[in-house]
Amino acid sequence: MLAMKTYDLSLPQRARPGRALALALAAASGFTGMGLACGGSDSTPAADAGTDRGIIQPPPPQGDASAEPSIRLSVGRATICATRNDTVKCWGTNRAALLGQGSEDDLPHPPPGNPLPGTWRTMPSIDGHACAVTAAGEVSCWGDNAHSETGAQNAPDGGTVTRTPSVVSGTQGALLVSTGGGFSCAAFETKVSCWGDANDGRIGPSPGVQTTPTPNLVPGLEGVATLESGAAFSCARKHDGTIWCWGSAGQAQIGIPEGSSDAGGDNERHPIPRQVAWLRDPRSLAVGSSHACAVLADRTVACWGDNSSGQLGHDPQLDPSCGSGHECNGKPTVVPGLASVREVALGGINSCAVRDDDTVWCWGTNTNGVLGHDPALDGPGSMAFTPTKVAGLSNIAHIAVSGNFACAVGRDDTVWCWGANSYGVLGLADGSTSTHTPVQLSGL
Does the pLDDT of residue 57 top 70, yes or no? Predict the structure, then answer.
């Protein structure tokens, strides 16, 4: 492999005073092509930046701040949830009752009139299951419960599906929630707790435990502003601007210790969060399946973790091999040519950003046109290492990205999506299986 050029981002962290989290509606995004909300993210009501699987609560836009849309989106592998005020409406695949309505019947776009039962403080975070914070300040989850990730004890008959939203015991006072591969996490004023699949240390220290429906303390995470989870890891951004990650490090997705000469991953469990080094005052955070990105104070974007499809913004051949045909880099590297970024959102092996001029730029794998341009224009493997502008989009406030499709919300409350139309989630009138051209979703 060629030597990777990295950027030294190790300027001192600028401390910011801690403050109570504002309980504002946050946005979420989809997780992976396997079902993240890439983490998805933001069910974060944090006032200073929060993400829920793919959507980030950004710093205040430099343009007209009064033109904030009333709709926010969160996405999964083939699912979209739209939140307006405190109601949520979801459609797409309903495998394992992921839509929270009790049945397992798929619902193509446009969705029916029945919203998700209950009233909600945050957007749902969507993986193979989904969770959100209720108006009463408790975490409620539904969907696949094979690893106790919905916080419910499975039925005596062996059933592993939670068909309607169910409150997770011990989550009163939750402010943020994120969902990953078989696990969930919640942030409170002074702590973070996780439950579900304990493999790889993804729910924190849990000796002798394989799965648990009971929230498990992840140490050292007080004052969390943003919480995101990927396939087998999570990251949290504190109010002091530092980012801490734990869980699987096979693709270097939790970063590497400062001073380490090895930028690759390892196969060890990492239940104790460690700080991601070399980040210069990160203002927001997003997590994909096995990679992560942060918007920095200078409005550039730095990414780390899996780079098998160029989702870090550079040629994978410049990175160490992490095994299984994956290249990765645990040292955050700046995405070249991307400036004035307000928001970033990640899918499975793809990434997108919104700039201050309200345009959308994407990079990584372009399967099904998820980057917003014809895959035939890309090189082998339909990968684009350089951020490319999504044509036809302007006046965009927020984005939500999964591994299979992406959506953008305009300041005028219009919603535009592109990529795979699995289960009719994009509502393509001609029955197409995918589109690389953004199409407007009506009926929201």
Answer: no
Q: How far apart are CA 223 and CA 433, in angstroms?
A: 44
Contacts of 398 (CB under 8 A, 6+ apart): 27, 55, 56, 69, 72, 73, 343, 354, 408, 409
Q: Are 311 and 350 in contact (CB under 8 A)?
A: yes
pTM of the entire predicted model: 0.85
Residues 150-184 have pLDDT tens digits of 999 876 556 799 999 999 999 999 999 999 999 99
Task: Find the helix or strand (DSSP H, E) in which 397 lies.
Answer: strand 396-401
DSSP string, 71-100: EEEEE-SSEEEEEETTEEEEEE--GGGTTS
Residues 25-50 have a mean pLDDT of 32
| pLDDT value of residue 111 | 82
Bond from prior residue into 110 cis (ω within 30 degrees of 0): yes
Report whether 138 contacts 188 (CB < 8 A). no
CA–CA distance, 429 with 233 (Å, rounded to integer): 38
DSSP state letter for 325: T
Number of other CB atoms surrounding residue 160 within 10 Å: 15
